[in-house]
Amino acid sequence: MSLSLFLLLLSLCNIAAVSAVSPPFRPVFYSDTCPSAELTVRHVINRAMAREPRSVASVMRLQFHDCFVNGCDASLLLDDTPNMLGEKLALSNINSLRSYEVIDEAKDALEQICPGIVSCADIIVMAARDAVVLSGGPYWEVKLGRKDSLTASQEDSDNIMPSPRANATSLISLFQKFNLSIKDLVALSGSHSIGKARCFSIVFRLYNQSGTGRPDPALDPKFRVKLDKLCPLGGDGNVTGDLDATPEVFDNQYFKDLVRGRGFLNSDQDLFTDAKTREYVRVFSGNQSEFFKAFVDGMIRMGDLDSGRPGEIRRNCRLVNSRPVEILLED
Ligand code: HEM
Ligand SMILES: *[C@@H]1O[C@H](CO)[C@@H](O)[C@H](O)[C@H]1NC(C)=O
Ligand SMILES: *[C@@H]1O[C@H](CO)[C@@H](O)[C@H](O)[C@H]1NC(C)=O
Ligand SMILES: *[C@@H]1O[C@H](CO)[C@@H](O)[C@H](O)[C@H]1NC(C)=O
Ligand SMILES: *[C@@H]1O[C@H](CO)[C@@H](O)[C@H](O)[C@H]1NC(C)=O
Ligand SMILES: *[C@@H]1O[C@H](CO)[C@@H](O)[C@H](O)[C@H]1NC(C)=O
Description:
The chain has 331 residues and is mostly helical. Helix content is 47%, strand content 2%.
């Protein structure tokens, strides 16, 4: 089969083909082939956190941006090539996703102890779980056995990933496309309990919400004064602010902030403005165990997203393994 026909076939599999039912991902996948896989990833995430606390939030975010675009297949990690525009420079990712080097470090460590065994896609999922645990959040058993994609699509990422301007209505329908419920949406948004975002992502709501020339009325006025100082009109869009009041601790502070009009992103605050999502915000703000339970359910469901496309175990998370196309097709 020619390369162009192969690529054509790949492009015919659109996002509708993503399914959460096919893969039998399971917890013990590497227990024979690489028993210390999870421990190895945990050590790397631990070291990353000691170096820079934010990096674990950045790593956790990778699961969302990977799994929503053609399944959890580490497509996100592929660098651009002359023949392929990957996802790293997609609208939601450029100048924003970070800490790819932490995944590289975990991959290097795993290639030392069990070469060719652990997929980059599984590393992302393990690392995201560890990031949550090491930040004070819940532990859960991750399902493993994913393959790494042979390609990536900047266009698919551009078409799928939500903007910080998104409202709850559009987020509900996006999540619905992946069989994720309204409760999943609100719980998974609670990942913004850790990490930071850029002024670029909020200046519109500070100065010109929905083209009104006015700030977002849902913003607590005191909080708005603080954000105006951090992000003056015409200022540096790369300056960052905390996504909640305790950005290094995975807790339900994010939801308490939303109730008080102190959500950082429009997509955050609108979860409290909109009656369809407000009750979940209230429940999670009042009961951290309810949040943790729903968050774990959501992460597992999101981690089940699979494109059903052929895959491989990459040796380097940034590059597809080099071998003839004909062999790839026999997988
Ligand atoms: C519900 C829709 C979501 C929207 C619209 C959204 C949007 C964003 C935006 C705009 C940023 C900051 C980007 C920047 O300014 O550079 C961000 C950061 C972040 N997002 Fe989301 N996000 C969503 C859901 C999620 C989910 C489901 C997860 C993970 C499970 C997640 C994890 C994170 C984390 C941890 C950060 C901070 C990253 C860092 O500090 O580097 N987000 N998100
Ligand atoms: C959602 O569930 C339906 C019905 O069970 C299934 O046909 C579809 O493939 C699922 N979609 C995703 C993205 O998992
Ligand atoms: C939500 O956003 C969508 C897409 O931008 C827009 O068409 C819709 O009017 C908005 N809905 C509400 C309730 O603001
Ligand atoms: C606010 O946004 C609207 C619509 O996008 C635009 O026409 C207007 O010029 C903007 N106003 C300012 C002050 O930037
Ligand atoms: C942020 O920094 C990057 C890299 O230095 C630059 O290309 C980009 O334009 C900046 N973005 C904003 C919103 O200022
Ligand atoms: C919080 O939720 C947990 C788990 O669902 C439940 O067992 C507990 O009773 C709730 N606590 C309160 C104070 O409602």
